Amino acid sequence: MLDLASLTELLDQPRKIVITTHHKPDGDAMGSSLGLYNYLIQQGHHAKVIAPTDYPDFLSWMPGNEEVIIYTENTKLSATLIADAEIIFCLDFNSLSRINEMGVLVGESPAYKVMIDHHLEPEDFDDYRHWDINACAAAQLVYTFIVDQLQHKELINKDVATCLYTGIMTDSASFRLPNTTSTVHRIAADLIDAGANNSRIHELIYSSSSENRLRFLGHCLANCLEILPEYNTAIIAVSKKDIARFDVNTGDTEGIVNYALSIGSVHLAAFIVERSDRVKLSLRSKAEFPANEICKKYFQGGGHRNAAGGQSEDTLEATVTKFKQILSEYKTLLNY
Fold it and tell me: How far is Cα of residue 208 from the mean position of the Cα atoms in its chain?
């Protein structure tokens, strides 16, 4: 394992660096990655962000986005960069399986691996770890890595601040989740002082829906929402036909589960969608209910207590049935 002094010494000279994050990156994944990228290039490092897959268009405005390489669209270049890297930063994930086929390449690379993450139960593939499950976002940890560990607060410029603010804002559900502490608000204030335009960032993320996405949301709420009063639970189940009918693109399903959770009596919400190869689940919960436990025990997934995800190789109907059956095990917790 590297200690901080050794890592700092490594970063004192320009290095070949790869930054990567989990597949289907969200606002925190891309915000933390591009925030770190914009910090590193100020010091002359040869840094590249490689995303394992595509990501939503509403994230494409962030500074440095034009330099991002998508692995599935440029596998040869990505493989070369990973093999040649001296340092690989792994952001917002702690298991190599979360970066799909890239996991093998990263694991085999002779580069030092630096994990910056806030998820439970990290794998031991890294050489240096900046990890805190109480952090609201990986972007928060990138901020503390730059400011507290590397002592480079002066390098939090407008581009870095914009990206990190985006990551914190999106992963905290606009500063609404319980882990949005006073420290998080102070960091957000620092980022605004450094140039992040908070109102404009919010507009770019949350006010850029396509017509199809809005109609799809209406369909989900009007036709796919099911309430289970006995368990204070809401389910939105969406079929492949619905996905095709509304021409759903990457990112169009983002946040829909939160509409179900916004119902006052609902303590657990599930968005269950049928994809081409499997069924995906996104769970959100209130208070102390362990959404991550359900995903880990029954749906090959995990995440945070109040926000987790999983998958199923069963049909959509069978997955929904299984989910409903599981709820009886948690009836007491759901009826607080």
Answer: 19
At a CB cut-off of 8 Å and minimum separation 6, what does 287 contact?
267, 336
The Cα–Cα gap between 35 and 196 comes to 12
CA–CA dist 109, 274 (Å, integer): 35
Backbone phi, psi, residue 283, to 5°: -115, 145
Residue in this structure with the two tokens 């190789």, named with its chain if needed = 313
CA distance 21 to 225: 32
pLDDT digit string, tens, across residues 171-205: 999 998 889 999 999 999 999 999 999 999 999 99
Q: pLDDT, tens digit, for every residue of 256-274?
A: 999 999 999 999 999 999 9
* Domain ranges (residues) in the chain: 4-206, 211-334
CA distance 190 to 56: 27
* DSSP SS3 for 250: coil
User: What's the rounded Cα separation, in Å, for the pair 249 and 270?
Assistant: 20
- What is the C-alpha to C-alpha distance for residues 102 and 91, in angstroms, rounded to an integer? 14
- pLDDT above 90 for 151: yes
Rg from Cα positions in the chain: 20
Helices (H), the chain: 4-11, 27-40, 75-84, 102-108, 138-144, 158-171, 182-193, 198-206, 211-219, 240-245, 256-261, 291-298, 316-327, 331-334
- Residue 152's contacts (CB-CB under 8 Å, 6 or more residues apart) are 39, 146
CB neighbourhood size of 153 (10 A): 12
Cα separation of 135 and 130, whole Å? 11
Domain 4-206, architecture per CATH = Alpha-Beta Complex (3.90)
Spell out a b/e string for 58-83, using b for 16 or more CB atoms within 10 Å of the CB, else e.
Answer: bbeebbbbeebbbbeeeeeebbebbe
CATH 1.10.230.10 for domain 211-334: no
Instruction: Examine the pLDDT at 251 and tell me if it is beyond 90.
Output: no
From CA 249, how far away is CA 236, in angstroms rounded?
A: 18
